[in-house]
Amino acid sequence: MSDTPIMRLAKATPPGIGRRVGGLSDRAIAWIFVAPSIALLLAVNIFPLIWTIRLSFTNFRVNRPNRDVEWIGLENYRDILTDSDTWLSTQATAHFLFWTIALQVLIGFTMAYLINKKFRGNDMWTTIIVFPMMLSPAVVGNFWTFLYQPQIGLFNYVVGFLTGADPSSFSMIGDVALAPWAIIIVDTWMWTPFVMLICLAGLRSIPDSIYEAAECDRASKWRQFWTITIPMILPFLMLAVLFRGIENFKMFDLVVQLTGGGPGSTTEVTSINLKREAFERWRTGYASAYAVILFVTVFGLASIYVKALNKVKDR
Asked: CA 234 to CA 111: how far, in whole Å?
């Protein structure tokens, strides 16, 4: 037998350690490998969550840590649920969620349906379409802020060319009515390719034999679309809605880069409001309660949605 490095390492292992390792069960060995990951998960995710829940019942302020911290119970939660600013930011978030998800699913499914039809240059166009989702949200925000400039922005000139309006007569990120739509347009541009890829995977998972059988039964293309394509791709559409809904509910960086929550508080979504409570007003206990409410809301809605998704998949 050749004297390989592995053999030399085995010979160098003390006999006592070798016997103890050799006597371990497969379950014990598995726990040895898994334990570091579990410890890291507890340190990075579970402990901060428990600490946040604890702080949510206090009046702790991180800029005054030496001040006596008082246990105030559910007062932070009561103040949040009765605060008009909270409900305004929730309304802005709901508006943002509804329109971004609706547009991304509609456009993403349409693009996937068209790309699924084989044509020359299919792969090239697919690569070009998915390019926006490869960029950082900070880069996208800066890029579109330049495009939205009334004087030199390309977006205003395109709108002016199509409608005949003066390009400098409106500001997408400075107008109260247009600012929410400015964010919706950018997020739709950036993440529609993600929805398209999910829908494309669903379309390509449908066996061709089903369409061939439908054609034998003389079903029209429209009939095939509604009775075969839509039912079989529905779980993929719902999965895309779940992913984008969770991500857009906590949208932060793109909004900060484009509008910073303005003008006024028109685009102040819940994540922006939470950031201001925590790092501008320094109400750490209040912000912790706010974070817990958002976590419970997203977790609860996602759990209900996943149950509905499983029922659709099991049909």
From this structure: 16
Helix extents (H) in 148-228: 154-163, 179-204, 208-216, 221-224
What is the reported pTM?
0.84
> Does 248 reside within a domain?
yes
Q: Residue type for 149, please?
A: Q
Question: Which string of b and e fits 20-32 if b means at least 16 CB within 10 Å?
Answer: eeeeeeeeeeeee
Range of the domain at 234: 76-313
For the chain, how many structural domains are there in total?
2
Quick one: what percent of the chain has pLDDT higher than 70?
91
Closest CA to 272 of 145, 190, 183, 167: 183
pLDDT per position as a tens digit, 172-182:
898 899 999 99
Name the helix (H) or strand (E) containing 246: helix 230-249
Q: 214 near 284, Cβ under 8 Å?
A: no
The shares of helix, strand and coil residues in the chain, as percent rounded to the nearest 5, are: 75, 0, 25
